């Protein structure tokens, strides 16, 4: 069977691809961000890192899908889900952010909008608090945008950010997103309405 790349567009130069013999397609394994950080799918041995980094109220307060307190069961369920999503979408949507030693320090994901409209995705991310304000997420997001446009073939990426999350808005701007609109009462979290600023970036 001829080997076939199932991504549209070109392949990102700093990504490593692995042939999958049974399906005859190529699976992306690793994306190098810079000398300090790379991306690869989350695996079972990341469970302890998830639990230690996500028992942090400030991460819970600024995100919608992460439970608090965060348990081993939550981590295992997320890792299983990421694997299922990767198979269903025929490419990984959830990427662990790792130090060069392989330690998980955060996550960056496409949320799955491309199931219904392959031209666009929504992005979400977090980094463990000990790693904040070192420029890591800005570099990761810049690379993730390229992965989305060059390799996955998206035309538009969306980044909804809670209005109060100044650090994330700064990251979005540094990675080339622009503020598109503000959505009052976009969500209800812990019984309180959350206003969201919607940031966008379009493929050039
Ligand atoms: C948002 C988050 C991912 C940023 O990651 P990071 O690796 O620290 O980001 P960077 O270091 O690349 O950039 C952070 C920027 O925000 C700025 N910043 C940090 N706290 C800030 C604050 N309270 N007000 C204004 N700017 C702030 C930093 O100074 C830096 O900007 P600069 O380079 O111009 O100085 C991280 O704080 C996090 O995981 N927060 C909790 C979860 C979350 O908010 N996820 C995003 C949901 S949309």
Would you kindly provide a written description of the structure presented here, covering whatever features stand out?
The protein is α+β, with helices and mostly antiparallel strands and 204 residues long. It has a single domain, classed as Aminopeptidase. The chain is 27% helix and 34% strand. It is built from five helices and nine strands. A nine-stranded mixed sheet has the order 1-2-3-4-5-6-7-9-8, with helices on both faces. The termini are far apart. Mean pLDDT is 90; it is low at 1-9. It binds coenzyme A (COA). Coenzyme A binds at residues 58-59, 62-63, 125-127, 132-138, 161, 165-168, 170-171. Coenzyme A binds next to helix 2, strand 6, helix 4 and helix 5.
Shape: globular
Report the major sheet. Answer: 9 strands, mixed
> What is the beta-strand fraction?
25-35%
Low-confidence stretches: 1-9
CATH topology label: Aminopeptidase
- The helix-strand sequence is EEEHHHEEEHEHEE
Strands, total number: 9
**CATH class division:** Alpha Beta
- The overall pLDDT, averaged over residues, is 90
Number of helices: 5
Ligand inventory reads: coenzyme A
Give the total of domains.
1
Topology:
Layout: E1 15-20, E2 25-32, E3 37-40, H1 47-54, H2 57-61, H3 72-89, E4 94-99, E5 104-110, E6 120-127, H4 136-151, E7 156-162, H5 166-174, E8 178-189, E9 192-202
Parallel strand pairs: 6-7
Antiparallel strand pairs: 1-2, 2-3, 3-4, 4-5, 5-6, 7-9, 8-9
Coenzyme A binds at residues 58-59, 62-63, 125-127, 132-138, 161, 165-168, 170-171.
